[in-house]
Amino acid sequence: MKGFFSRLENRVRQVDSLLCVGLDPHPQELAAPTPEEARDFCLRMIESTQDLAAAYKPNAAFFEAFGPPGFETLKQVIAAVPDGIPVILDAKRGDIASTAQAYARAVFQAFGADAVTINPYLGYDALEPFLNAPERAVFLLCKTSNPGAADLQDLNLANGWRLYEHVARLANEWNRSDNLGLVVGATQPDALQQVRRIAPDLWILAPGVGAQGGDLRQALRAGLRPDGMGLLVPVSRGISRAEEPHRAAQALRDTINQVRREVESQGSRPGPDAHDTPQGLIHIADELLEYGCIQFGQFILKSGLQSPIYIDLRRLVGNPGLLAQVAAAYRSLLGGLRFDRLAAIPYAAIPIATAISLASGWPLIYPRKEAKEYGTRAEIEGVYRPGEIAVVIDDLTTTGGSKLETIEKLTSNGLKVRDVVVLIDRQSGAAETLAQAGYRLHAVFTLAEMLDHWERTNRAPADQISAVREFLSQKEED
Q: Which part of the chain has CATH 3.40.50.2020?
């Protein structure tokens, strides 16, 4: 039997849909508060949406409320779903040892569900019985859609990560059989974007569209993978309470597909536009400007060019709080990459990478500008082993030349490099230069994004912003 996510992707392609229809028989939607009415309600939903649904998601609570007859009703509803359409039981289980094993038997054998939602609070051994069957799947609660989610899920850990970010990182590690996904509320587009960075390949179940107020387009832009897949949008009341449920489901499917096509046409998951930039990043951009790390005027660059903007991130060492925020922004990008060690380019990136290392526990090395002429005569400071993967850290990038020089020094000493991560991409050709050499550039900000934000919020004079844009366009033409 194929794995759950293979079957899910086959279904998505078959009906060209990421819509997950929720089967939630709320008492107020039933003609009478009986398990029979709940069953009939769900069967009508299945019948009216089976040509549009990528999956179905019955909520166990509404069935359990009827006692033993409700359990039988749930089993009947799951059995009524046509073959080939996955069923995700929204049960939010979470326990350990023999209790977890019993829950797994109930979900997958007694009820016949294909996947289940699980609470991660008890750790990996609470998930293990559900993950033992590769053809079944778990959606791990990560950042939920309810207002109280922040009470625990946004707590900052000692390493600088928020708790929900740590759950996303753990999911990457625990997904050994390609049968683990995440639950991230559509009401939390910033968190969706962050989780997608940390877990670039995992499927995400994103509840909260409709009655809970989640914005469908924002959620899709934040959570879709570059291939237009990876995000299921569960909707219940928005369909069941519509005058014509089939038409409502079709409208949702079509809206989802419109955004999917936009994402696929870009070839990569789009970064946030001016109105979708996470508040934390907006704050960092403003602080960089206020602290003088970015200045407008007339400056002579190292290349000899005269520039209307100067970026001096060496000043960060004088502001530990801002440095910590910048390091956290780097960690957001690094969480989705595979590497063994950070490799900082001297000199501006060394304090940044040190802050990242201290907060995350990732070990740090850095190549010397000149090899030692004494002692070990090392070209690279720090401990590493040949064959390990190093991710290059720098403060900003312009043409990409210095990055290639660093990469050459690292690879000549036996290390492998795949990715370069910077705070600011000046958009002067570095991404293209690195890509041609086989490396990927990741930036917390592009200069254009920052300019757009400062223009919209009147934090910098319009004529200075225009001068920078003209400077950038001239360099592109050159």
A: 279-477
Token pair for 187:
């009401």
Task: Give the Cα separation of 206 and 201 in Å (integer).
Answer: 15
**Domain made up of 4-265: CATH architecture:** Alpha-Beta Barrel (3.20)
* Chain region(s) in the chain for CATH 3.20.20.70: 4-265
Alpha carbons 233 and 88: distance in angstroms, whole number: 12
Residue 426 · residue 270 · CB < 8 Å = no
Q: Which residues are catalytic?
A: 92
CA torsion through residues 267, 388, 353, 403, sign: negative
Say if residues 309 and 294 touch (Cβ distance below 8 Å): yes
Residue at token pair 């007694």: 110
- pLDDT truncated to tens, each residue of the chain (478 aa)? 678 999 999 999 999 999 999 999 999 999 999 999 999 999 999 999 999 999 999 999 999 999 999 999 999 999 999 999 999 999 999 998 899 999 999 999 999 999 999 999 999 999 999 999 889 999 999 999 888 888 999 887 766 678 998 899 899 889 988 999 999 999 888 889 889 888 888 999 999 886 666 788 888 988 998 888 999 999 999 999 999 999 999 999 999 999 888 877 765 443 333 333 455 577 789 889 999 999 999 998 776 778 899 999 999 999 988 898 899 889 878 877 889 999 999 999 999 999 999 888 899 999 987 766 666 678 899 999 999 999 999 999 988 988 999 999 999 999 999 999 999 999 888 999 999 999 999 999 999 999 998 998 888 889 999 999 998 887 544 4
- Strands annotated E in 174-278: 180-184, 204-205, 231-235
Contacts for 263 with CB less than 8 Å, ≥ 6 apart: 220, 221, 224, 226, 228, 269, 270
Contact 126, 120 (CB under 8 A): yes
pTM over 0.70: no
Instruction: Name the class of domain 279-477.
Output: alpha beta
Residue with tokens 């919209």: 456
- Tell me how crowded residue 149 is: count the other CB atoms within 10 A of its CB: 18
| Cis? peptide before 347, omega within 30° of 0 | yes
Distance of CA 365 to the CA centre of its chain: 27
* Measured distance between the N- and C-terminal CA atoms of the chain, rounded to whole angstroms: 56
